[in-house]
Amino acid sequence: MDDELFANICEKVRCVLLSADMEKLNYVREMQARIQHQSLFENVLGSNKYVDEMDRNWLPRIKAYSSDKSISDGFAGSEMSEMEGLVEEGISARSESVESDEQGVDVWQGYFKGFQILSETQESAGGDGRKCIELRCGDCDQAIINYLRAGIRCFAIDLFCGTAIENQSLILRVRESELNISKEIGFPISSTIFAKLSPRLQYTGLIEPPDLVLDLNKGDELTLTSVREYSTHCTKTCVYVNAAFLFTDVNVFDYICIGPEIQVSVQKKDAHLRCIVEVGGKLSSRIPVLFPSRCTKFLVSMEELEDITFCKEVGINVIVSHIGGTEEYFQNLLNALKTLGCENMRVYARVVLNEIKGCDKWLDWMADSYDGFIIAFSPAERHPERDILHLCPAAESFIKRAYLLQKVIILEPALIAKKQLIVDPSYYHHIFLYPDKFILPCESSNSCFYFFFLHDSISEVLIEEALDKLPYCDRSLTGSDSLARSTVCASYQMKAPVIFVCSLTGRMAAKIAHFRPKAQIIFITRMKSAETFISLYHNIRFLYFNGKTDENYYCSLYKHFLFGLLYAESQHLIKHNDNVIFVYKENASTRLPDKYVSYKYHSRYFPQHLDKILFRKFPHGFLKNQPVHTFDARETKVVREQTEVDEKWEEDEDNI
């Protein structure tokens, strides 16, 4: 790509300012997570140095610890004031306080002690790990907070709509809401945000309201523009088209088709195209626009390049192409990513499943090449049974192959939820089992009760049938799929509400999610970048462990799981005598997690129980086997084992 072109793109999307804003916000998030981590462990374990230097008081504090003591008591006033100063300095956070019902009179006489009684607006968030919310530019601050409180950790934005400034503001509001919720609960909160790229083909922008239809008559004047400020404000006289590259090749008196009816002729050409309507018709949101055939020399549109650059600067690592296209289309997109220095981005594709035609496996290349898929449906207007969902064998083969390859599948259930499409029982696996998440628009996220009612009743039977099938063929080279499947089977047998996974890259958490456990998967890691993709998988919640790297692997693993248990307890995910499962690698020299253990959670003595169940080589607890050396008469320190966790090994999991 031309350096001048790249510079123009960066200038157009305000790369320097976007990067500075996000860097400032990420710094505040990192500082808050560090202070929370330090205060929590100082409260529980009695160390003021992230518990990396253990003294004689550490083990007694573990034995004396009781969960009846509030976790938030560990936050000193000076630390909280320091955090507030950082937030005020870093961002202009919205300071609207949310008054809970607990501040008023307790009309329930303490029956719901320890729980929050939700308001109607909070209840409409409907929360669990199955939903992914597509956010729109506008006043949605309170909605975002409600979604985060409800446990939703996956959001999407459509870069076709709105300007770079509006979309950046939307992302900042999500991160600021995470800061506010994190400050309330005392633990770091992170969600995954992915972006839908502008279509490579040309479409009109949005008319407000989106379902409005305008009539254009012959002789009306119409201006076509590529300025993104109009992408959400199209009118009868000015229409946005994502065709910045094509405008230069259009000549005066050329004809342009808009939708199936409208034809306009270009009368004047400047920064915009001034046109006259030659054939009238209906104008609506996002209808295709056809330019003259000579306007096709660019393989990747200007809008796509701007969107990719925007994602790079705001820290979005997952992008969604509007169509899957052909192999050449996919290679052109990869080349554009490489040119912009974004070759490590995860590339998903949007696929309209019931529009795929054919009886062979011609889409296998797409299932193999893309990292994930957004599955959409279109109304079957031409089919005699248009109210019933029909899939061709090629579509069935495609989505099944994507599931077996453990690719992320996100389904748009809007037509099914509105009962415009009825799912035939032969497609239950494709609709209710294979998808990881279900994407819903922000303004109507509480209108899918019918769909999730079907999903809950049908998916439970499908999952049990899938797990009962024997023998199981492990397609992994390391046996990790068998471990993940066994973990899920154990969680169903023991009715475990939570599975804790401790690893670096999150590959094992994704494998466990592939078998669709009912239990919440809490992935605990110190790799901050995992937040950019991990919550796209089924029922995974990311928990960032902001502690110093321990030389002692056993101590580090212990603190990871202790941190996870404290978080799960504070969020009421587990209660006394619940079974929980820990998945981890027993030895630092092992590349992948190779073990899972179950534990009957004790709300008072879980810190000392955890010490004894993790490692077979330490049946009485690894703390008692740590060599002790006295450096000072007043202080005793532990000499740690001289072993390191080779992080690169787990980073190579995908290659294995």
Describe this structure in words.
- By secondary structure, the protein is α/β, with parallel strands linked by helices.
- Helix content is 34%, strand content 17%.
- The protein has 19 helices and 23 strands.
- A hairpin with a 3-residue loop joins β8 and β9.
- It is globular, with a radius of gyration of 27 Å.
- The chain starts with a helix and ends in a 5-residue tail after the last helix.
- The model is unreliable at 48-59, 61-84, 86-104, 120-127 and 628-656 (pLDDT under 50).
CATH-defined architecture of the domain at 480-651:
3-Layer(aba) Sandwich
Q: How many beta-strand segments?
A: 23
The averaged pLDDT comes out at 79
Fourth-tier CATH superfamily name of the domain at 480-651: Pyruvate kinase, C-terminal domain
CA distance, first residue to last residue: 33 Å
**How are strands sequenced across the largest beta sheet?**
1-2-3-12-13-14-15-16
**H/I helix tally:** 19
Biggest beta sheet summary: 8 strands, parallel, barrel
Any idea of the CATH class of the domain at 480-651?
Alpha Beta
Report the uncertain regions.
48-59, 61-84, 86-104, 120-127, 628-656
InterPro entries: Pyr_Knase (IPR001697), Pyrv_Knase-like_insert_dom_sf (IPR011037), Pyrv_Knase_brl (IPR015793), Pyrv_Knase_C (IPR015795), Pyrv_Knase_C_sf (IPR036918), Pyrv_Knase_insert_dom_sf (IPR015806)
Cofactor: K(+)
GO molecular function: magnesium ion binding; potassium ion binding; pyruvate kinase activity
Domain Pyruvate kinase barrel: 143-351
